[in-house]
Amino acid sequence: MKIELLILDVDGVLTDGTKVYDVHHNVLSKRFKCKDFTAIKRFIAAGVNVVMLSGDIFNKSMAKKRNIDFYCSRNDDLSLDKSRYVDVFSEQYNVKPDNMAFVGDDYFDLSIFAKLNHTFCPSDAPNIIKEESLYTLNSLGGEGVIVELYDMFKTKGWIKDATEEQVADLDKKEITSEEMS
């Protein structure tokens, strides 16, 4: 299997799906696992493009600070049909659907699951997602899903392991890293 593009849902995959709201129902915070961001850098260093595809625009600024391309599936018509992005990604990244992988966890991911062969979900995804997913990972959403996925790809020989230097170079280019100094 040759994966050239990894498409990630955010809420329920990189997070546990919990959102903290203020009294006006504005999202205040979400919880991410830093090891997953390192795994994303490892994928990129290993030659796999990584994008985030989420129905929540709140995630856009986080992706930008991490140098990850972000696409919001909730367009002007408020549709959450993520499958319409398969053609966009095919053209944008010059990759065939057979060389794309998607990680999703919830009902609104079903449309893209139906269009791709290489699909993955966290262990706490609903049964309808598990039934449509090629692989159900052992990790819960927000608890190292991307770390486990990277280790699986490396173990199966689907990617060549990235070096520590490559990953560190990518880390230095993130706005998030600059803000920590």
Question: What does this molecule look like?
Answer:
It is built from eight helices and eight strands, in the order E-E-E-H-E-H-E-H-E-H-E-H-E-H-H-H. It is of the alpha/beta class.
Summarize the helices and strands and which ones pair or pack.
Blueprint: E1 5-8, E2 20-21, E3 27-29, H1 34-45, E4 49-54, H2 59-65, E5 69-72, H3 85-93, E6 100-103, H4 110-115, E7 118-121, H5 127-132, E8 135-136, H6 145-155, H7 164-172, H8 175-180
Parallel strand pairs: 1-4, 1-6, 4-5, 6-7, 7-8
Antiparallel strand pairs: 2-3
Helix pairs in contact: 1-6, 1-7
Feature tags:
181 residues; alpha/beta; six-stranded parallel sheet; two-stranded antiparallel ribbon; 8 helices; globular
Helical residue percent? 25-40%
Q: Give the biggest beta sheet.
A: 6 strands, parallel
Strand content: 15-25%
Overall pLDDT level: 93
Strand arrangement, major sheet? 5-4-1-6-7-8
Strand-pairing-aware structural class: alpha/beta
User: Helix-strand pattern, N to C?
Assistant: EEEHEHEHEHEHEHHH
Report how far the terminal alpha carbons are from each other: 39 Å
The total strand number stands at 8
Count every helix, treating DSSP H or I runs of 4 or more residues as helices. Answer: 8
Stretches where pLDDT is under 50 for at least 5 consecutive residues are: none
- The radius of gyration computed from the alpha-carbon positions, rounded to a whole number of angstroms, is 16 Å
Net shape = globular
Explain briefly what this protein structure is.
The protein is an alpha/beta fold and 181 residues long. 36% of the residues lie in helices and 16% in strands. It is globular, with a radius of gyration of 16 Å.
